Amino acid sequence: MPRPIEVHKVAIESVTDASGLAALIDDGVFAADDVLAVIGKTEGNGGVNDYTRILADRAFREVLVDHGNRSYDEVRQVPLVWSGGTDGVISPHATIFAYAPEGRYEPVDEPRLSVGVAMSEVILPEDIGRPAMVEKVAAGVIDAMKVAGITDPADVHYVQTKTPLLVLETINDAKERGCDVWTEDTLKSMDVSNSTTALGIAVALGEIEMPRVEEIHRDLSLYSSVASCSSGVELDSAQIVVVGNASGVGGRFRVGHSVMRDALDADGIWEAIRSAGLQLPDRPHRSDLGHRLVNVFLKCEADPTGRVRGRRNIMLDDSDVHWHRQIKAAVGGVTAAVTGDPAVFVSVAAVHQGPSGGGPVAAIVSVD
Question: Could you read off the pLDDT of 335-345 as tens digits, one per residue?
Answer without folding.
Answer: 999 999 999 99
